[in-house]
Amino acid sequence: MYLFLVTTLIGFLSVHVSVLTKYISKIFNRIPQAERTLLEERRELLKQQAALSVSRDFVKHSKLQRKINAIDEQLKESGSKRNGNNFIYNIGINYGCNILLSVVMIFLSVYYRKVPVFIVETKYNLWPFGGLISFPNDVENSVSVHFWMVSCSSVARLLKN
User: Which residues contact 124 (CB under 8 A, 6 or more apart)?
Assistant: First the structure.
């Protein structure tokens, strides 16, 4: 039962690893507190600027606009640095998860190569594909880890599309 659940989970995760890495990337790629304070300050300045009339309070309006422009420049600079780092983190997380899942799949395939995931009842004959389905096993009507992982990955791809 344990082997059935683990191989099914790994088979589905191998296809949907992008969903997993998206959530992990959100954890690592948060906006820093300094940028949040700059964004909040920008919002406040925009509210103040919207309350002013351009024709009557042109001086105050233009001072606020200069402050907003300065904040925008700071946000662009810090955002470009952060986006460069985020790209590297996203690539690393994506490939790291794929490598980890591949290693786990190889380990399960090698370690449990002679252990059937489950055995089909004898009243259901798997002939002529029984040998392929239970390839390294000698147990009749059994499903091997290799075949089960490929089947789960195929079903997950079909469900994804």
Answer: 141
Helices 17-28 and 58-111 cross at an angle (nearest 10°) of: 130
Place of tokens 């599309």: 161
DSSP string for 27-69: HHTPPPHHHHHHHHHHHHHHHHHHHS-TTTSHHHHHHHHHHHH
Encoding tokens for residue 72?
């925008």
Give just the sign of the alpha carbon dihedral 29, 30, 34, 37: positive
- What is the identity of the amino acid at 160? K
Do the Cβ atoms of 45 and 71 come closer than 8 Å?
yes
- Convert the pLDDT of each residue in 4-41 to its tens digit: 899 999 989 888 888 888 888 888 778 888 889 999 99
Q: How far is CA 36 from the centre of its chain?
A: 25
For 66-92, b/e burial (b = at least 16 CB within 10 A) is eebeebeeeeeeeeeebeeeeeebbee
Q: Are strands 142-143 and 118-119 parallel, antiparallel or unpaired?
A: antiparallel
